[in-house]
Recover the amino acids of this structure.
C-alpha cells in the first residue's frame, strides 16, 4: 500500500483557504460570527488589505455595515448610504466586482473618493456576495495605498468572496429557521393557555388569536407574546 505525502504546506494559499472554509462551516449557525470570520480572514489572507468590511442589503435601497475590522469601513459604508454612490453600492446594485485602484484620481464617485482618501484609504476592491438565487451584499477590501491589490490579491479575494457568500447564506437560513421555531413555540404556548382557560380546542384557540390580531391590527406573534407574558405575571 502506497501513501502520497502532501506537498501543500500550512502557508500555501490553498491550505489557508481550506482552513478558512472549515472555520466558517463550524461557525455558520451565527451570522455575526460568520461575518467576522470573513472580514478577519480577508485582512489576513489578501495581500494589501489593510481593512475589510461587509455591506449587507437590508432593504430595497438600504445598506448595513457589518463586521468591520476597524472604524474606517463603517464610516465609509455610512457615507455611501448617504450619498448613494461608491464601490460597495455599485458592487451590490450592479452585480459586479468593483476595482478602485487609485481613489485619489477616481472620478466615478467624487465625494466618496475624497472622503475615503482623507481617511487614509488609497484603493478598494468590492466583491458582490451572491449565490445562484440570492444577492446578499458585498465584501469590501481597503488598501492604505493606491494600487494596493495585485493580480494575486484579486484571485485570493475572489475565492474568499465565493466561500463567504455560501457560508453567509447558510448562516442566514439557520437563523431564520431558529426564529421560525421560536415563533411556533410561542404561539403554541399562547394557544395552550387559551385552551385551558376557555375550554376550547386548538383550532378554536388559533382562531381566537387570529381574530385578536386582526382587531388590534397587531402581528400574531406579538399577540401571543403579550398573552404569554400576562400568563406568566399571573402565575407569580
Amino acid at each position: 500500500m502506497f501513501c502520497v505525502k502532501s506537498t501543500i504546506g500550512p502557508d500555501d494559499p490553498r491550505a489557508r483557504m481550506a482552513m478558512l472554509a472549515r472555520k466558517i462551516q463550524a461557525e455558520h449557525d451565527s451570522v455575526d460570527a460568520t461575518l467576522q470570520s470573513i472580514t478577519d480572514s480577508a485582512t489576513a489572507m489578501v495581500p494589501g488589505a489593510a481593512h475589510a468590511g461587509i455591506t449587507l442589503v437590508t432593504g430595497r435601497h438600504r445598506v448595513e455595515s457589518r463586521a468591520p475590522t476597524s472604524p474606517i469601513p463603517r464610516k465609509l459604508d455610512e457615507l455611501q448610504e448617504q450619498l448613494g454612490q461608491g464601490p460597495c453600492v455599485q458592487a451590490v446594485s450592479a452585480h459586479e466586482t468593483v476595482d478602485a485602484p487609485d481613489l485619489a484620481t477616481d472620478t466615478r464617485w467624487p465625494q466618496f473618493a475624497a472622503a475615503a482618501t482623507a481617511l487614509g484609504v488609497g484603493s478598494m476592491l468590492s466583491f458582490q456576495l451572491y449565490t445562484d438565487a440570492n444577492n446578499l451584499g458585498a465584501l469590501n477590501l481597503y488598501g492604505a495605498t493606491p494600487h494596493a491589490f495585485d493580480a494575486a490579491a484579486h484571485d485570493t479575494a475572489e475565492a474568499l468572496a465565493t466561500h463567504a457568500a455560501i457560508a453567509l447564506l447558510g448562516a442566514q437560513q439557520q437563523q431564520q429557521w431558529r426564529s421560525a421555531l421560536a415563533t411556533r413555540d410561542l404561539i403554541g404556548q399562547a394557544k395552550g393557555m387559551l385552551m385551558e382557560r376557555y375550554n376550547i380546542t386548538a383550532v378554536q384557540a388559533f382562531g381566537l388569536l387570529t381574530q385578536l390580531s386582526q382587531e388590534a391590527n397587531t402581528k400574531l406573534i406579538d399577540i401571543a407574546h403579550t398573552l404569554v407574558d400576562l400568563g406568566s405575571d399571573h402565575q407569580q
User: Anything to note?
Assistant: The first helix runs from residue 13 to 26. The domain at 177-235 is CATH 1.10.10.10 (Arc Repressor Mutant, subunit A). Strands lie at 51-57, 63-66, 98-100, 123-130, 135-143. The helical segments are 13-26, 31-45, 71-83, 87-94, 110-118, 151-198, 202-216, 220-235.
